[in-house]
Design a protein that fits this description.
This protein is mainly alpha-helical and 209 residues long. It has one domain (4-207). The chain has helices at residues 4-19, 23-32, 37-60, 62-68, 70-95, 105-124, 127-136, 148-177, 182-206. Helix 2 packs antiparallel against helix 3 and helix 5 packs antiparallel against helix 9 (182-206). The longest helix has 30 residues, at 148-177. The radius of gyration is 18 Å and the shape is globular. The N and C termini lie far apart (39 Å). The model is unreliable at 101-105 (pLDDT under 50).
C-alpha cells in the first residue's frame, strides 16, 4: 500500500492533464450537450477503464517495451490518430442525420455501451496517457513499490480526479441542453465535436517522428 501523500501528490500532478481538453472531454461534451446523460457517463466509464489499462500495462512493463521501441511507438501513435480522425468523421456524418436514435430503454443502453467503448479505445490508443504511467507515476513510488498494484492505486486517484471534473461538466451540460432544441443542437455539437476530433487526430499524426 503506497502512502496517502503519494496518492494525493499524483492526483494533484495529473489534474492539469485531466483539465486539458482532449478526446474524452470532446466525447463527454458531445453527449452532455444533447442531454444524453447515460452516454456521457458511459464515456467517463470508458475513460476510467482506459486509465486502469495504462496503469496495469505500465506495472507489468508492457507499455515500457512499446515506448522504448521507436517503430512500435510510431505505429501506436498513427493508430490512435487514425481512430480519432475516423471517430470525428463519424460524428460529422451523424450530424447530417435527420433524427437522433430511438428513446427506448434498450436503445439508450445500446447507445451508452457504444459511447463507452469508443472512449475506452480512444484512451487506450493515446500514447500520452501511457506516458503518464511510464514517466510521471514512478516519481511517486519507491523502488520497492513499483508494480501493478501500486500503479493501479495511482490510477484510481487519477480516475477520481477525472470523474469529478468530467462528471460535473457532463451534469452541467446536460442541464443546459434542456433549454435548447435538442435535435438542432445535436447536429451542431456533433459537427463541432467531429471537427475537434479530426483536428486532434491530424495533430497527433503530424507529431509522429
Amino acid at each position: 500500500m503506497i502512502e496517502l501523500t503519494a496518492l494525493l501528490g499524483f492526483a494533484v500532478a495529473v489534474t492539469p492533464l485531466v483539465l486539458t481538453p482532449g478526446a474524452s472531454f470532446t466525447l463527454v461534451s458531445a453527449r452532455g450537450m444533447v442531454g444524453d446523460r447515460p452516454g456521457a457517463w458511459a464515456c467517463i466509464a470508458g475513460t476510467a477503464v482506459g486509465i486502469i489499462t495504462h496503469a496495469v500495462l505500465a506495472g507489468v512493463g508492457l507499455a515500457a517495451v512499446v515506448m522504448q521501441s521507436a517503430e512500435l511507438y510510431r505505429l501506436l501513435r498513427l493508430a490512435g490518430a487514425a481512430y480519432l480522425i475516423g471517430l470525428g468523421l463519424w460524428l460529422w456524418l451523424r450530424s447530417r442525420s435527420s433524427t437522433e436514435q430511438g428513446s427506448s430503454d434498450a436503445m439508450r443502453r445500446h447507445s451508452a455501451w457504444i459511447e463507452g467503448r469508443r472512449a475506452l479505445v480512444a484512451n487506450v490508443l493515446n500514447v500520452k496517457a501511457a506516458a503518464v504511467y511510464l514517466t510521471l507515476a514512478p516519481q511517486f513510488l519507491s523502488a520497492t513499490q513499483a508494480g501493478v498494484w501500486s500503479m493501479v492505486q495511482l490510477g484510481v486517484g487519477h480516475i477520481l480526479v477525472m470523474v469529478l471534473w468530467l462528471g460535473l461538466w457532463a451534469t452541467g451540460l446536460t442541464a443546459l441542453s434542456a433549454r435548447f432544441d435538442r435535435l438542432a443542437w445535436s447536429r451542431r455539437i456533433n459537427q463541432l465535436g467531429g471537427a475537434v476530433l479530426v483536428f486532434l487526430g491530424i495533430r497527433s499524426a503530424a507529431q509522429v517522428r
